[in-house]
Task: inverse folding
């Protein structure tokens, strides 16, 4: 049995969670999931400005803080912090270890091959169309606006790095579950066609991939009685060689591990539960069994898997114009009516100026903004305050900029009892859109490099 502790569910998650996972009790692996689809486009933009950037800078900083624990406790670390620049991230990790006094002590594995941005034109020329999975359009229709293109690699390159003795593995884009499935493949020597075991690894990895979401965070069930939310523990996957697993957390930490909470995470972002497609296996989530096996411990078994497809999924981002969002807050009496009138005034002024937008959207925070009037009816006239949030999106950056200049005047030439936000004039920002596609696996080759890097 191995214990895999996850300490990051996204880039921006708790900075203390990795240290708490390392110091809270025995673990064999620490995993950190930094990458979301939009994160890749951000990192690609950083890399285009600075060839030494393009990775999650939090990760080397964490390694420096945790180096003593990692080395002395014998923990292996797996993270997709490499973003679009895994090799530079690996070098930054080596430098962090050196600063902490552990220069050259650990082998660092770097997995590359997911970034196909430099290869796009060649792929399109050979007839690999990378059609949008939602619309069917070929990528050629937006090629000039593409910002990033990364393949979701699987778990076997991670396992290969561990097989070669890596104590810290840095990857670019891979499937979220690969971070914990890779260690299981390495430890138990699962074969590429042991579909049920691989599916079990996918299920366990999926439960812990979003961090504290598996231990009571963002959980609808009994959230008001959650023990010590402020000190919530992050999840630990206990994986067995035959595929059985359990979800738990360190003793004495906040939150709770229950069947209800684990089930919420199981159905999170999976699509068809009968066919959760990953690079390594298709997992049938309806086949698994789940039970409470003690306080803060949930056991899972019986997972079934089917052969993987011949394709990798590709996460592509592209520029889709510009946007700006601003707010004004209106106070009692008739706060909602004032906000609605301000919206009408702004729209009329924008129309008279001849400004064209792809979309303009308004929300009234405090007056059921999430669901709108259709669900709740007209908000109460006794509302103390309502924040009007208005945004525009379009292809003309100059038109978006003019919108930002039309919001502030409403503080004096619009409805009364209004507060202009301290953030000032809204900013014009680039809109980054998501383009999901498939690529044949024979078009992609992962590369694994393992070495003792001397910073």
Result:
């Amino acid at each position: 049995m191995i214990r895999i502790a996850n300490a990051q569910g996204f880039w921006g998650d708790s900075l203390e969670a990795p240290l708490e996972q390392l110091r809270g009790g025995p673990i064999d692996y620490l995993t950190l999931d930094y990458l979301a689809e939009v994160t890749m486009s951000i990192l690609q933009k950083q890399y285009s400005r600075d060839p030494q950037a393009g990775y999650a800078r939090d990760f080397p900083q964490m390694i420096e803080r945790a180096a003593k624990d990692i080395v002395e406790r014998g923990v292996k670390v797996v993270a997709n912090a490499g973003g679009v620049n895994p090799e530079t991230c690996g070098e930054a990790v080596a430098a962090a270890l050196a600063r902490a006094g552990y220069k050259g002590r650990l082998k660092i594995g770097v997995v590359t091959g997911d970034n196909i941005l430099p290869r796009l034109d060649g792929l399109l020329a050979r007839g690999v169309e990378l059609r949008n999975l939602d619309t069917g359009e070929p990528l050629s229709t937006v090629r000039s606006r593409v910002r990033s293109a990364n393949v979701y690699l699987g778990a076997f390159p991670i396992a290969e790095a561990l097989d070669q003795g890596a104590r810290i593995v840095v990857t670019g884009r891979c499937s979220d579950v690969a971070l914990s499935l890779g260690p299981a493949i390495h430890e138990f020597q699962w074969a590429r066609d042991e579909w049920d075991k691989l599916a079990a690894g996918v299920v366990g990895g999926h439960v812990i991939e979003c961090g504290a979401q598996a231990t009571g965070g963002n959980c609808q069930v009994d959230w008001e009685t959650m023990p010590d939310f402020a000190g919530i523990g992050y999840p630990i996957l206990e994986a067995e060689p035959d595929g059985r697993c359990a979800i738990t957390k360190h003793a004495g930490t906040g939150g709770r591990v229950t069947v209800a909470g684990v089930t919420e995470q199981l159905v999170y972002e999976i699509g068809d539960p009968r066919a959760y497609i990953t690079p390594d296996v298709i997992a049938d989530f309806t086949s698994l069994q789940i039970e409470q096996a003690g306080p803060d411990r949930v056991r899972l078994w019986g997972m079934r898997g089917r052969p993987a497809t011949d394709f990798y999924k590709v996460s592509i981002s592209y520029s889709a114009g510009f946007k700006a969002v601003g707010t004004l807050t209106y106070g009692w009496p008739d706060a909602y009516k004032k906000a609605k009138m301000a919206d009408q005034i702004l729209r009329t002024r924008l129309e008279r100026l001849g400004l064209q937008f792809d979309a303009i959207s308004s929300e009234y925070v405090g007056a059921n903004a999430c669901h709108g009037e259709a669900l709740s009816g007209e908000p109460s006239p006794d509302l103390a305050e309502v924040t009007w949030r208005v945004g525009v999106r379009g292809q003309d950056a100059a038109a978006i900029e003019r919108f930002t200049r039309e919001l502030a005047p409403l503080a004096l030439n619009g409805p009364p009892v209004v507060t202009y936000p301290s953030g000032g004039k809204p900013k014009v920002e680039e809109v980054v859109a998501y383009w999901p596609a498939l690529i044949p696996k024979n078009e992609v080759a992962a590369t694994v490099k393992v070495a003792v890097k001397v910073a």
